[in-house]
Design goal:
Number of strands: 22
CATH topology of the largest domain: TIM Barrel
Largest sheet: 6 strands, mixed
Oligomer: single chain
Distance between the termini: 27 Å
Strand order of the largest sheet: 3-2-7-20-21-22
Structural class: alpha/beta
CATH class of the largest domain: Alpha Beta
CATH superfamily of the largest domain: Metal-dependent hydrolases
Length: 503
C-alpha cells in the first residue's frame, strides 16, 4: 500500500503565465471576509504546448482557498492537488499549481475552506434507516450531504453485514464504513439476561485492509443498560440509585445499582479472546460501574501491551467517576463524546442520580483534554429526523461542532440555553473539536495513516465549508454549511447553486 501512495515533489518556480480558470465562482457575498480568511487571489498557469507538463500531473487542483490540514507541521495551506483518488500535494498556490497538466481540472475556491471529510466515530445511520421509512441509499445520501466521508457503525448483525458487503461488491457504497460487529445486543431477554449475537466473531478474522470500503476492525460489547426501559435496563452504577428514584421504584432496573450485563471474569476472557484474534473491542458503557468494568477488562487483556497496538475503546462514557479519568490516560483508551445535547442544568437529573453524582455527567468533556484520542459520537439511529438539527441525537456534524465548542443547547423556537457551570468548566478549542470529527475517529479504527488530515498520500476525502471554523466565533459555528463532499477524489455531494466548486 505504501508503494501505491506517491509523494510527488513540487516543481517550484513554474511561471504564472495565463488567466484564471473561466467559470470560477464569483467572490462570496454571504459570509464576511473575516470568516472566510481569504488569501490573496492568484492567477494559475494554463497548460500550453510550450509549457512542459509535470512528470505526474494532478487530476484536480483546488486553489486560492483556506486548507485546514489538521497536520501538526502545516496547519493551513492555500491549495491541494489530487491524483488517482489520493492527495498529491498540499501547499501554496504556486507550489501546487505547478502540478497542473493539460487535463487538470482547476477549482478556484475564492477563499472558501476545505478540510478533511467528517468521520462519525459512533453512528447507526446505515443500520436502521427503515425506522423512518428510508432506504440504505437514502441513508448514504443523507450522510454525504452533511459532509461525512467515513462512518464507524457501532452495531451490526449478520443481515446488516451482508447488506454492506453487497453494496461494496456492487460498487454502490459511496463512503467508507468501519463496522463493530455485535457480540451481544443492547437488550435483555425475559429473564433479564444478555442476548448474544456473535455476528462476526468468533468465526471470522477482522477486515483491516485500508483499501476496503467495508472494514470490520472490532466487535461491540454492551456492558450495561441505556434508556431505562425493561428491555434495555439501566445504567450500571457503583452505588445505588437514590431512595425512591424512578428507575428503581418503578422496577425498570434489575437491581438498585442498575443493570450490568457481564461478570468481570467472563468479560475478561471474551476481550482477551477477541484481542488474540486481532479485534479491538468497543464497549457500550454508560454508568461509572460499567466504565470501570470496561477499563478492568482492557487492562487484563493488554497485560502490559500498549493499547496503541490494539485500540480497545469505550463508547458513551456518560457518567465517568473522577478517579477513572486517570485510568483512561494510563491505559491510553480512546473514548466517544457526545457533541451536542442538553447540558444546561445537570441538577434537573439529581433526583435520578443524586446531587453529587449527577455532576459526573460532565466528565466526558474531560476526555478531549487528556493525552488520548477522543472522538465525537452522533449516536444517530433514526430516533430523530436527520433534518432536525436541534435533536438530542441529531446527525448534523456542524451542530456537534457547535455543541462541543459552546456547550449550548437550542430548544424549540430557537431558544438557547447555556451550559451548566460544571459543564462550562470544560473548554474545548475549535481546532481540538475538529480533530474529534476527523483524525481521532480515524485513529480509533487504525486509519489515521489514510484519513483524517490533509497530507500527501492520504485519501482525497474532503469537504468544502461556507466559512472557516477557525476564524469565526464559536456561537457562529452553527451557521456553517457543507458545500461539497468528496470521497476518494469523487464528488459525492454538491450543494445546489455551488456547482462551480464541484469538479
Amino acid at each position: 500500500m505504501k508503494t501505491f501512495f506517491r509523494l510527488v515533489g513540487v516543481a517550484l518556480g513554474l511561471a504564472l503565465i495565463a488567466s484564471c480558470r473561466s467559470g470560477a465562482p464569483a467572490a462570496p457575498t454571504d459570509i464576511p471576509p473575516s470568516a472566510t480568511n481569504a488569501p490573496a487571489p492568484t492567477r494559475p498557469p494554463s497548460f500550453t504546448p510550450t509549457s512542459p507538463p509535470p512528470a505526474e500531473a494532478a487530476d484536480i487542483i483546488f486553489y486560492n482557498g483556506v486548507m485546514i490540514t489538521l497536520e501538526t507541521g502545516q496547519r493551513t495551506a492555500q491549495a491541494i492537488a489530487i491524483r488517482g483518488g489520493l492527495i498529491q500535494a498540499v501547499g501554496s498556490d504556486e507550489e501546487v499549481l505547478a502540478l497542473q497538466g493539460p487535463d487538470t481540472t482547476l477549482i478556484n475556491l475564492q477563499g472558501r475552506t476545505m478540510m478533511p471529510g467528517f468521520i462519525d466515530g459512533h453512528t447507526h445511520i446505515l443500520a436502521f434507516p427503515e425506522r423512518m421509512g428510508r432506504t440504505f441509499d437514502q441513508a448514504q445520501e443523507t450522510a454525504l450531504r452533511y459532509g461525512f466521508t467515513t462512518l464507524n457503525e457501532m452495531w451490526a448483525d449478520e443481515t446488516f453485514l451482508e447488506e454492506l458487503f453487497q453494496a461494496e461488491q456492487a460498487g454502490t457504497l459511496r463512503l467508507r464504513v468501519n463496522v463493530f460487529a455485535s457480540y451481544n445486543d443492547g437488550i435483555l431477554d425475559g429473564n433479564h439476561q444478555k442476548v448474544f449475537l456473535k455476528a462476526w466473531f468468533p468465526g471470522h478474522d477482522p477486515i483491516l485492509d485500508p483499501t476496503a470500503r467495508v472494514r470490520i476492525p472490532g466487535i461491540k460489547v454492551f456492558l450495561d443498560g441505556d434508556n431505562f426501559t425493561p428491555i434495555r435496563g439501566c445504567w450500571a452504577l457503583s452505588d445505588p440509585f437514590p431512595p425512591g428514584a424512578r428507575p428503581t421504584s418503578t422496577g425498570l432496573c434489575g437491581t438498585s445499582r442498575g443493570d450490568l450485563y457481564w461478570q468481570q471474569d467472563e468479560l475478561n476472557q471474551v476481550v482477551l479472546e477477541a484481542q488474540t484474534a486481532g479485534f479491538r473491542v468497543a464497549f457500550h458503557a454508560m454508568g461509572d460501574r460499567a466504565i470501570e468494568v470496561a477499563l478492568n477488562s482492557i487492562e487484563f487483556a493488554l497485560n502490559g501491551r500498549p493499547n496503541d497496538e490494539v485500540r480497545h475503546q469505550i463508547e458513551h462514557g456518560s457518567m465517568i467517576r473522577p478517579d477513572l479519568l486517570p485510568r483512561y490516560e494510563q491505559l491510553n483508551v480512546p473514548g466517544s463524546v457526545r457533541g451536542y445535547g442538553d447540558f444546561c442544568n445537570l441538577q434537573e437529573m439529581a433526583p435520578v442520580f443524586g446531587p453529587e453524582r449527577v455532576n459526573w455527567y460532565a466528565n466526558r468533556y474531560a476526555l478531549p483534554g487528556l493525552n488520548i484520542h477522543a472522538y465525537i459520537e452522533t449516536d444517530f439511529g433514526w430516533t430523530a429526523d436527520p433534518d432536525d438539527r436541534y435533536a438530542q441525537r441529531g446527525l448534523d456534524p456542524i451542530m456537534q461542532l457547535y455543541g462541543i465548542a459552546t456547550h449550548n443547547f437550542e430548544g424549540p423556537g430557537g431558544t438557547v440555553c447555556g451550559p451548566d457551570p460544571v459543564v462550562a468548566g470544560f473548554v474545548i478549542p475549535i481546532e481540538r473539536a475538529l480533530q474529534m470529527l476527523t483524525i481521532d475517529p480515524a485513529y480509533a479504527v487504525s486509519m489515521e495513516d489514510y484519513l483524517g488530515t490533509l497530507a500527501p498520500g492520504k485519501y482525497a476525502d474532503l469537504i468544502i465549508l461556507s466559512a472557516n471554523p477557525l476564524a469565526i466565533e464559536p456561537t457562529s459555528l452553527k451557521h456553517l454549511q457543507v458545500w461539497m463532499t468528496m470521497v476518494g477524489g469523487q464528488v459525492e455531494y454538491c450543494a445546489a447553486g455551488k456547482e462551480a466548486y464541484c469538479p
